[in-house]
Amino acid sequence: MAIYRDPSIRPSLEPHRYHIQDHERQFFLLLTGIKDDQQLRGHILAVQQKAYQVHTILFQFTSAHPLQDPQLRLHPSFFFHQIAQIPGYYNALKLLDKRTDPILLDLGCCFGNDIRKAVVDGWPVQNVIASDLRQEFWDAGHELFKSTPESFPAAFIAGDIFDPSMLDIDIDIAPTPTDNDIRPLTSLTTLTPLKHRVSAIHASSFFHLFNEDQQRLLALRLAALLLPERGSIIFGQHGARPEKGFRIEVAANSSADAEPNPTKHAMFCHSPASWKHLWEQDIFGPHQPTRVRVDAELQETTNERWDFEDLGTNLKVYVMNWSVEVI
Ligand SMILES: C[S@@+](CC[C@H](N)C(=O)[O-])C[C@H]1O[C@@H](n2cnc3c(N)ncnc32)[C@H](O)[C@@H]1O
């Protein structure tokens, strides 16, 4: 497991941030077989402590200033599952009745909580695939849920979604009548063979890691993976604002600099309107044969849930539940 180059900047565990909700508690008890709440808390925090050792670039707000030694704070939200909060998830589940062996991809999956939730909800494990920068997070997921690659045989591919060796969207892949060439999904080493093959893509707390241009590129890359058939869907939840722009409120409160620089410190957030425009006009615009409907709803979130507790109680912070569905 890769560790921080400079151990002094490694974030320390913050057990007081352990706020598990009842449905999440039930989920963990079901999957881990643990019976006792205190034992569950100890188990989750112990795995979290290990995961804090993993060095990754979590925030890349601007390509000019990627944080080189970021302090990855794996606060307990990393152990929650967002997927079931998103209305688009329930549209994705309907594809199980409409298609033969539809593929679900979870991008930026971290420990794989969300893909596990989908499997519990009925998505066949051989038809799901997860991906993240770091293999270590996926391995920690097995530890967290007390599973093994044999007991939870979901496919996982480690890699940077922006890297062409991970996903080459310019390659021509001839349509085939069957999925035989990509089965089993566990045999894949890159996402490229999945071009135009994925029925549902989940990406939560992911887009907001990147600046505006990178978010657009990311959207193009996910669109290239999507099977262009009615009902195919990309969905997620991430940081947003009523008006598109930087989340300067948070940067202003959390930056050590006297004059926080939004392009360096703040998260770039789309608004529901700019998010719709991005997908309906830029990605699947009139120049494209595939048309989509975008749903995007702003939701005010709580400090307790999202770790903004140091920033005062008047701060309004939003996330957006969204989906992009082929019509
Ligand atoms: C904030 S976490 C979100 C985890 C999970 N999706 C959730 O909703 O809780 C973002 C994840 O994206 C991964 N990540 C960051 N940059 C990435 C990239 N360029 N390609 C693939 N994964 C990336 C990180 O390693 C991290 O696990």
Account of the 3D structure:
By secondary structure, the protein is an alpha/beta fold. It contains ten helices and nine strands. The strands form two sheets. It has a seven-stranded mixed beta sheet, with helices on both faces. The chain has a two-stranded antiparallel ribbon with strand order 6-7. The radius of gyration is 19 Å and the shape is globular. It binds S-adenosylmethionine (SAM). The site of S-adenosylmethionine (SAM) has 18 residues, from loops.
The overall pLDDT, averaged over residues, is: 84
Beta-strand segment tally: 9
Which structural category fits the helices and strands?
Answer: alpha/beta
- Distance N to C terminus: 44 Å
Q: Report the uncertain regions.
A: 1-5, 56-72
Major beta sheet, specifics? 7 strands, mixed
Provide a count of the helices. 10
What's the quaternary structure here? single chain
Can you give me a brief rundown of this structure?
Keywords: Methyltransferase, Transferase. This protein is an alpha/beta fold and 327 residues long.
Keywords, please?
methyltransferase, Methyltransferase adrK, transferase, seven-stranded mixed β-sheet, two-stranded antiparallel ribbon, 9 strands
Q: What's the layout of helices and strands?
A:
Layout: H1 22-32, H2 37-51, H3 87-98, E1 104-107, H4 113-120, E2 128-132, H5 135-144, E3 155-158, E4 200-202, H6 212-225, E5 233-240, E6 245-246, H7 248-254, H8 262-265, E7 268-269, H9 272-283, E8 292-301, H10 303-306, E9 317-326
Parallel strand pairs: 1-2, 1-4, 2-3, 4-5
Antiparallel strand pairs: 5-9, 6-7, 8-9
